[in-house]
Amino acid sequence: MKQEYFSIQDGIYYVGVNDRKKPLFENMWPLPYGVSYNSYLIVDDDKVALIDTVDVAFFEQFMKKIHSIIGDRKIDYLIINHMEPDHSGSLKLFHEFYPDITIVGNRLTLGMIKGYYGVTGNNIQVTDGYTIDLGHHNLHFYLTPMVHWPETMMTFDEQTGALFSGDAFGAFGTLNGGFIDTKIDTSYFNDEMTRYYACIVGKYGTPVQNALKKVKDLGIKYICSTHGPVWTGSNVTEVIGNYDRMSRYDTGNGVVIVYGSMYGHTEEMAEVIAAELAAKGISPVKIYDISHTHVSYILRDVFNYKGLIIGSPTYSGQIYPGIEALLSKLSIREIKNHYVGLFSSYTWASAALRRMIAWAKETNMELIDGSVEMKQAMDESEEEKAIQLADRMAEKLLNS
Ligand code: FEO
Predict the structure, then answer these.
(1) 276 CA from centroid of ligand 1 (Å)
(2) CATH top-level class of 255-398
(3) For a Cys-Cys bond, which of 7, 11, 81, 259 suits 166, CB 3.0-4.6 Å?
(4) Domain 3-247 belongs to what architecture?
(5) Cα of 86 to ligand 1 centre, how many Å?
(6) What are the pLDDT digits (tens) for 81-96?
(7) pTM of the model
(8) What is the predicted pLDDT for the residue at 230?
């Protein structure tokens, strides 16, 4: 392909790839729009630097792009911002093509390179604030541990204002035709950035806040993440704001209702709660059947809305398995600044509600009084209790 297709600005090129085949990211998270693995090449008068590689399945395509830009010119530096194999997977093969290259990473990065790939050789071990001059471009390194792994760092190019941010500000979804936000259809990236954050980075709110403090005032003009579009113009402020919001668990006043239901009784109670919330002016009310919606979409909406109401029948003396798995994922993400309400059902022995209450008390969410439990089918008194639970949730949200 023509070199000009890949140009971002002033010697910076996009050399990433699109994956439209992988069904599940990390073998867990659905990819309805695919995913991109982004890598960037900086071609300067004195030196050439590559920032991150790509999934090894795309090595050949990746190398073709690089060669179409620099031909046989040598690459001086391979900067590794993040070691997860969706980005570092081509490192070993790449090193065989460029054995004299200098690998740039921090102490943890270099250890992981040896551990994963057995690659050693020329390297520069950077610390926070370290710089490398390519001639025209002056690169600054900022350690941003746990966004998303402990070795994660970001690279800032002073010349162009390009921030190579690793997974931060990334989104699921392939880049179709181009890679700069102004030149492609970005309609699915807003939801897919939130879903990416909720699934991949959502546990690390405090590290994200620490990272934002380091980089937000650098004068960023381009955000070059490892997944999704290159963000420019007002989108830079917008995606930084979005990350700031999500990492503070700052959400809107909607409610996510999620339930498990084998024969429709728990679902019926979910409908009652939803109708009362809507009647009280709460919007949106999002209802998910745990058996029919992948948990990643539910987690996404938990990072969008402050209210969460969870319903489970008792199943073999436990919480319904899909709901149990959801609770675990919510705990891992240390969800804060949320209200949580609970409802449950059982046929002969109650267990799910007691277990869910014990779970809720261990979280940082505020448990709404009046958890509801019904035996077998819902009667009038249980329906009234479900309405009261919805009213209490609405009151909390409307007064918060
Ligand atoms: Fe896209 Fe944490 O790797």
Answers:
(1) 41
(2) alpha beta
(3) 81
(4) 4-Layer Sandwich (3.60)
(5) 6
(6) 999 999 999 999 999 9
(7) 0.96
(8) 98
State the amino acid at position 147 in one-letter form: V
Report the candidate in 133, 277, 154, 294 with the shortest Cα–Cα distance to residue 210: 154
Cα-based distances in Å from 21 to 24, 30, 34, 174, 400: 9, 11, 7, 11, 44
* 2 has a pLDDT exceeding 90: no
183/175 Cα distance (integer angstroms): 10
C-alpha 95 chain-centroid distance: 29
- Could you read off the pLDDT of 130-159 as tens digits, one per residue? 999 999 999 999 999 999 999 999 999 999
Q: Which residues pair with 180 in a beta bridge?
A: 230
Tokens 């073709």: give the residue: 64
Return the domain boundaries, the chain.
3-247, 255-398
Point out the ligand 1 atom lying closest to the alpha carbon of residue 170.
1
Mean pLDDT of the region 379-394: 98
Q: Is residue 80 predicted with pLDDT exceeding 90?
A: yes
